[in-house]
Each structure stands twice: as C-alpha cells, then as structure tokens.
C-alpha cells in the first residue's frame, strides 16, 4: 500500500517502472474482477430469465393441452351422454338396443365429418363474398375497367408475357407459365388487369411477347382507343391464328 | 496529486477496456457461421414470398411459385463467384434427378450481377433444373438471402420449413432427411 502511495505521489522519484505500474495493474485486476463478476451476474440473470421463460412456456403448453382436452370432452360429451349404457351392453334387454350403441361412434364421426364439410363450405362462401365485396369497394362499377386475355388455337404463337399500358402508363406486366398457357389454350380467360378509370377517351396498348412461327422470338403490339362511359368497361385481348398468313393475330376488342 | 488522478484515470481506462473486451467475448462469442444464420432464417415457419421469374434453364420458360402449392419446392440461391456454388449446383441437380418424379420442384436463383457468368456456370455444370436470374436482387431481398449458397425447403402448403447454408456431407444428409419428410407429408 505504501509503495502504491509512493508511486502515485512521486511517479518519477527513483522507483522502477514496474513499481510505478503496480497500482495500475492492481486497479486493472480489480476492474477485471469486477467486470467479470458483473458479467457473471448478468449471465446468471439471463440464465434465470431463460429458465423462467421456458417454465412459463411449458406451463402455457400444459394449459393449452388441458383446454384442448376439455374442449374435446365437451365436444364428445353429448355422444357419450346419449349412450350411457355403452360400456355395459349386457344390461340391454334385447339385441336391438345393444347394436345401437356399437354403431353410435361411427355415426358421430360421420356427423362430425359432415359438420367439418359444412364449415368448410361456409368458409369458402364467406371468402367468395368478401372477395366480391372487396372488388365492389375497390373498383366500383362506375369507374371499373377490366382487361381480359384469351387464346384462340395459338399454333403460331407461344405466349410468354403481356405488358399493358393505359394512357401511356404501364399498368400490368404479366409473365405466363406453361400451366397458365395450357389453361388459356383450353379456353380459359385470364383477367390481366382491373382498375379504375374516369369517364372519357382512353387508349390501351398491349405488347405480347413469346415465340412466334419457327420458334423465333416474337413481340407484337395492339392498341385500342375507347370511350369510358358510366358503367364498367370490359376489354378483351385476343390472340388467334391467321391461317392465310401463317402468323398470329392480336386484337383488342370491347365487350358490350 | 495530478499524477494520482492521472494514474487512477489510466487505471479506469484500462479497466473499462478490459471489461469491454470481456463483454465482447461473452456476448459475441464466436462469429455466427453461414449455417447458423441459415438455421435462424427469418422466413422459417412463414409462407414463402411470391416468386415469378423467367428461367434460363429447365423444362419451362417461366416459373411462378404460388402455382406450385401442393408440391415440395427446393429453392436454392447461388452465384457464379461463390466458391462452393459449383458443387452446390451439382447437389441440386442430383436432387432434381432423384426426386423430380416424386413431385419435387428444384429451382435455383442466381444472384449474379452478370447473367452471362451465371449462364456459363450453369452450362459448365450441365444444369437441367429450373434456374432464374435475379440481377436486381429483388428476390434476394424478398427471401432474406445473406449468404450463398442458401437452400430453402418449402412444403406443400407453401410454408418455408427448413433452411440450409453450404451443404457439407452432414448438411446434405440432413437435407435429404427433411426432404423425404416433406415429400411424405
């Protein structure tokens, strides 16, 4: 302690460098020990916290399992309650009542399956209604414009993508997969774009990319100027084959 | 007195440095490897984002991930400059050759800046499975790719179930087990 005191009091008073550094080393070691202790405290705290979290999650898991079991019991309750004599069929006076409880579980499963199917149908119906409602809200009939694409034969053109520009602004760029092209070839119609437009004159330009005759890259455009009135406007892009020219034909037409 | 204060300050500074280094060592530990990062991939357990791309290899021209619901998809991200990606492409090719008939869809996504170098590597490895090119790194960001190669296994309902970094022998074996599990579901 004295040496430390001396060293601090007179750093250049004839003592060696090692002696001058001794308090520094001591402080350093003290700090190191303290920080080690602090870090071990933090680690212990974190460990404790992790343990608590794990315990809580396990408890939650058990609680959920218990709730599920309770729900299952409640659901299965009426079936069991309806057949209290099921475990002891010998008490039944005749064969007919004894056969009924044996058939009951199968009936329960059937009814459950029916309920599940019914629920699924309801969900699908609800989903469809929501979809329609969303469309009605987002694209009201007064301003709605929809562009569809159809393929007729398609021998001379293998569709790859369609780019749509409405009033010189790109509104859609759709890449078709083989499955989609196949669906179009089978008579399917794809809605490429749906949006809103104000009444008045507009122009639609469509660019078709794909493979043309002789497997050559092919890009063609088609345009249509149309008048948007009150009410929804439906436009169709049609790709068909022109046999006389052995070339594909791209047309845009309005639906009445 | 000034010397005392100076000495104590120096000691404090040294102590702080020491504590900082220890804290770094304890908190940081060893740096996280690519495998660790893949294991903690943020998309695990979540629906896979949409992927619509033109393909430069494979049986079809374009690919849309959402229309592959009901099929198990292996999505592999790679670059031509990554050291292990050549082997990785070969591994993906083997998976495709073995499990395509079982309904597996293997799709590679090259994150190269230059499409030509990606195509060159694919040609050199004789890649036959689907490969898309993402020079804009849109898919890289969407699928949170921080290291290449990265493999994501997507189940039949479109959920990202497993993620792998570089595939060593053990990693490849693990991936096969997971793949079979997904194919059996």
Descriptive tags:
heterodimer, A: 256 residues, alpha+beta, elongated, B: 185 residues, alpha/beta, Glutaredoxin, seven-stranded mixed beta sheet, 7 strands, globular
Characterization of this structure:
The complex is a heterodimer of chains A (256) and B (185). In chain A, a hairpin with a 4-residue loop joins strand 7 and strand 8 (247-255). Chain A is 49% helix and 30% strand. The longest helix of chain A has 66 residues, at 17-82. In chain A, helix 1 packs across helix 2 (17-82). Among the domains of chain A are: 2-61, no CATH class; 144-255, Immunoglobulin-like, CATH 2.60.40. The N and C termini of chain A lie far apart (103 Å). The model of chain A is unreliable at 1-19 and 78-100 (pLDDT under 50). Chain A is elongated and about 95 Å long. With 256 residues, chain A is α+β, with helices and mostly antiparallel strands. Chain A has a four-stranded mixed beta sheet. In chain A, strands 3-2-5-6 form a four-stranded antiparallel beta sheet, with no helix packed on it. With 185 residues, chain B is of the alpha/beta class. The relative contact order of chain B is 0.18. Chain B is built from six helices and seven strands; from the N terminus they run H-H-E-E-E-H-E-H-E-H-E-E-H. Chain B folds into two domains: 1-31; 34-184, Glutaredoxin (3-Layer(aba) Sandwich), CATH 3.40.30.10. In chain B, strand 6 and strand 7 (160-164) form a beta hairpin. The N and C termini of chain B lie far apart (78 Å). Chain B is 43% helix and 20% strand. Chain A binds chain B through residues 7-11, 23-24, 26-28, 30-32, 34-36, 38-39, 43, 160-161, 175-180, and chain B through 3-4, 7-8, 10-12, 14-16, 18-19, 22-23, 26, 52-54, 60-64, 67.
């Amino acid at each position: 302690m004295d040496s430390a005191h001396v060293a601090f009091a007179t750093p250049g008073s004839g003592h060696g460098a090692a002696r001058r550094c001794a308090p520094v080393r001591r402080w350093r070691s003290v700090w190191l020990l303290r920080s080690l202790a602090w870090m071990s405290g933090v680690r212990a705290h974190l460990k404790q916290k992790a343990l608590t979290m794990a315990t809580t999650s396990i408890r939650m898991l058990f609680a959920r399992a218990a709730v599920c079991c309770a729900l299952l019991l409640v659901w299965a309750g009426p079936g069991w309650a309806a057949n209290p004599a099921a475990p002891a069929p010998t008490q039944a006076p005749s064969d007919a009542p004894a056969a009924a409880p044996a058939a009951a579980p199968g009936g329960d499963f059937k009814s459950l399956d029916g309920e599940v199917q019914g629920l699924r149908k309801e969900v699908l119906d609800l989903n469809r209604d929501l979809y329609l409602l969303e469309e009605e809200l987002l694209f009201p009939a007064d301003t709605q414009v929809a562009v569809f694409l159809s393929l007729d034969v398609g021998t001379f053109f293998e569709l790859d993508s369609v780019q749509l520009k409405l009033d010189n602004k790109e509104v859609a760029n759709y890449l078709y997969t083989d499955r989609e092209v196949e669906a179009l070839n089978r008579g399917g119609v794809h809605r490429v774009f749906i949006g809103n437009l104000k009444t008045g004159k507009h122009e639609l330009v469509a660019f078709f990319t794909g493979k043309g005759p002789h497997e050559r890259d092919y890009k063609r455009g088609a345009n249509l100027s149309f008048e948007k009135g009150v009410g929804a406007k439906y436009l169709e892009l049609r790709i068909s084959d022109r046999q006389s020219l052995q070339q594909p034909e791209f047309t845009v037409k309005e639906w009445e | 007195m000034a010397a005392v204060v100076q000495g104590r300050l120096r000691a404090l500074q040294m102590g702080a440095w020491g504590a900082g280094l220890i804290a770094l060592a304890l908190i940081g530990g060893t740096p996280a490897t690519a495998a660790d990062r893949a294991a903690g991939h943020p998309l695990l357990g979540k629906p896979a984002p949409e992927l619509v791309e033109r393909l430069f290899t494979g049986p079809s021209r374009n690919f849309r991930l959402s229309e592959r619901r009901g099929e198990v998809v292996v999505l592999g991200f790679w670059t031509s400059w990554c050291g292990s990606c050549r082997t990785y492409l070969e591994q993906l090719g083997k998976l495709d050759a073995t499990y395509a008939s079982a309904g597996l869809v293997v799709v590679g996504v090259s994150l190269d800046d230059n499409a030509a170098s990606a195509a060159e590597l694919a040609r050199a490895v004789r890649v036959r499975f689907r490969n898309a090119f993402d020079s804009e790194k849109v898919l890289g960001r969407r699928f949170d790719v921080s290291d290449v190669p990265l493999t994501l296994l997507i189940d039949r309902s479109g959920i990202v179930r497993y993620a792998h970094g570089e595939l060593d022998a053990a990693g490849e074996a693990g991936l096969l087990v997971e793949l079979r599990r997904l194919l059996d579901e």
